[in-house]
UniProtKB/TrEMBL annotation:
It is an enzyme of class 2 (transferase). Pathway: Cofactor biosynthesis; tetrahydrofolate biosynthesis; 7,8-dihydrofolate from 2-amino-4-hydroxy-6-hydroxymethyl-7,8-dihydropteridine diphosphate and 4-aminobenzoate: step 1/2. Its EC number is 2.5.1.15. GO terms for cellular component: cytosol. Gene3D superfamilies: Dihydropteroate synthase-like. InterPro entries: DHP_synth-like, DHP_synth_dom, Dihydropteroate_synth-like_sf, Pterin-binding_dom. SUPFAM superfamilies: Dihydropteroate synthetase-like. Residues 18-277 form the Pterin-binding domain. Keywords: Folate biosynthesis, Magnesium, Metal-binding, Transferase. It comes from the Bacteria. This is dihydropteroate synthase. GO terms for biological process: folic acid biosynthetic process; tetrahydrofolate biosynthetic process. GO terms for molecular function: dihydropteroate synthase activity; metal ion binding.
Amino acid sequence: MDGCREIPVTEQVSKRKIQIMGIVNLTDDSYFAPSRCLGTDGRSDMKKVLGRVSRMLEEGADIIDIGACSTRPGSEPVGEEEEWRRLEPALKAIKDSFPDAVISIDTWWVSVVEKAAGLIGPFIVNDISAGEDDPGMLPAVGRLGLKYIAMHKRGIPKTMQSLCNYRDVTGEVLQYFREFAERADKAGIRDWILDPGFGFAKDTGQNWQLLRELDTLRTLGHRILVGVSRKSMIYRLFGITPEESLAQTQVLHFAALERGADILRVHDVAEAARTIEAYRRLM
């Protein structure tokens, strides 16, 4: 009975939808300097923004992720008004220049989400707080019918992204998203993506354990986004800088794909695309 045949691994991999999310930072303090697209006058540098977006789309990015506030540990939030001041002209320019581009916005402010929806229409909300930092976020996303990325940072305030003690980091992340699923369902959010939150409230060992056991999170039935690009779990381990960590980043991307990652959030789109192609061929 062909309808009950076991699907070969090669067929599963060839049909699997793997996407690349390219990072654009409208900041002056993100940990990887080449991703910064904020001018010295504090305004978005539109030449840098459009140039970076154009290059990433040409290299194979499926999603353009735009953030106007650095979320690296120790960074200071800029506030919702400043976020929108930076975002508004960039979103307009990107939508005008690349009308078919899929955009996600890295924010935890519901006011930013509502303004952006009015400006550019549907987009993906990439919320590092999973709705915890602004109580109005989940209801607004449900009402607007937007796609949503929920990240785990275990309720750590955005100004205090300190490390947490875990008995079992993977188990606690799994339980966190089981509980989040209930909150999302109540808010009418059906289409959400899971981000384990590498680098947030986790030390180096916990980050590596979580990546090693990533396939455990697939039991939740939601797509998984992995953001490990050039992060401290790499550069601190090897005593190098973010700028020197491209090779090791691709090793981790390959490992994430093996364990079920569906979306790679990256600074380097061309390299990530080659890593995905190598993964498909080897599988």
